Amino acid sequence: MRKLILWNVVTLDGCFEGEQPWDLSFHNLVWGPELEKLSMEQLQEADMLVFGENTYKGMAAHWPNAEKDDAKVAPTMNKIAKIVCSPTLEKAEWNNTTIVRDAVKELAKLKQEGDRPMYIFGSADLSQSLMNAGLLDEVRLCVAPIVLGKGRRLFTDKNTKKNLALLEAKPLSNGGVLLRYQVQNQS
User: Fold this and answer.
1) Alpha carbon of residue 79 to chain centroid
2) pLDDT by residue (tens digit) across 37-85?
3) How many Cβ atoms are within 10 Å of 159's Cβ, its own excluded?
4) Phi/psi-derived region of residue 176, left when phi > 0, alpha when psi is between -120 and 50, beta in every other case
5) How far is Cα 163 from Cα 155, in angstroms, rounded to an integer?
6) What 3-state DSSP class applies to 83?
7) What are phi and psi of 26, to 5 degrees?
8) What pLDDT digit, counting tens, does each position of 79-129 carry?
9) What gap in Å lies between CA 139 and CA 6, rounded to an integer?
10) CA-based Rg of the chain, rounded to a whole angstrom?
11) Residue 24 and residue 17 in contact, taking contact as beta carbons nearer than 8 Å
12) CB crowding 161-187: b at 16 or more within 10 Å, else e
C-alpha cells in the first residue's frame, strides 16, 4: 500500500506561505545542498504528486518552463504522475496530470493501488481534509528559522486532533530543522 506523505517548508510559527499568495521567500533561509538533496531523494522515491487546485496552478505555471533554470528537478517534476484535487478545474494542462473531484474517496483508492509514496506539496486545505479523513501517513516538514507573525498557516483550527510520532529530527547547517512524523490514526 502506498503512503501519503505531506511535505512542506514552514516557518517557526507554522506558516507555509506569507501574507500574499506564493510568498515563499523564507524558503531561501533553508534552501541549500542538504535540502536540495532531500528534495531530489523524495521526488525520485515518489510514485505521484498530489496538489490542491491553487498549488497545482502555481506549479503548472512554473515547472514546464523551468528546465533551463533547474535542470535537476524540472525533468522529474514534469514527467511524474500528478493528481490535482479540484471540484471546479475544467482542464489540466501540465502533462501527466489527472483531475480528481472527490479527493478523500479517490486518494483512498489510489493508496491501495501501489507501493511507492504519493507526496502532497503545499496544498494546506487539501492536506487538512486528508488528515481529518485519516489518509495522511506522514508529515515531513522543514522548519525555517523565522517567525513571520502573519501568513497562511499549514495547520489551522479546521484540523481535527491527531497524535504524531516523531520518526526523525535533523538540523540543517543553515539553521533549518527537518522533522518527520508518523500520523497516528486512532480508530
Assistant:
1) 17
2) 999 999 999 999 999 999 999 999 999 988 776 777 888 999 999 999 9
3) 15
4) beta
5) 13
6) strand
7) -65, -15
8) 999 999 999 999 999 999 999 999 999 999 999 998 999 999 989 999 999
9) 5
10) 16
11) yes
12) ebeeeeeeeeebeeebebbbbebeeee
Alpha helical stretches, state H, 112-183:
124-132
166 contacts 181 by C-beta, under 8 angstroms = yes
| DSSP character at residue 27 | G
What contacts 182, CB < 8 A, 6 or more positions away?
137, 138, 164, 165, 167
Chain length of the chain: 187
In order of 30, 39, 43, 49, 83, the CA distances from 33 in angstroms are 9, 10, 15, 22, 28
Strand ranges inside 15-133, DSSP E: 15-17, 48-52, 81-85, 97-100, 118-121
Extract the C-alpha cell encoding 13. Answer: 510559527
Cell triple for 27: 524558503
The enclosing H or E element of 153 equals: strand 152-153
Q: Which three cell numbers stand for residue 110?
A: 489510489
- Cell numbers 494546506 correspond to what residue? 124
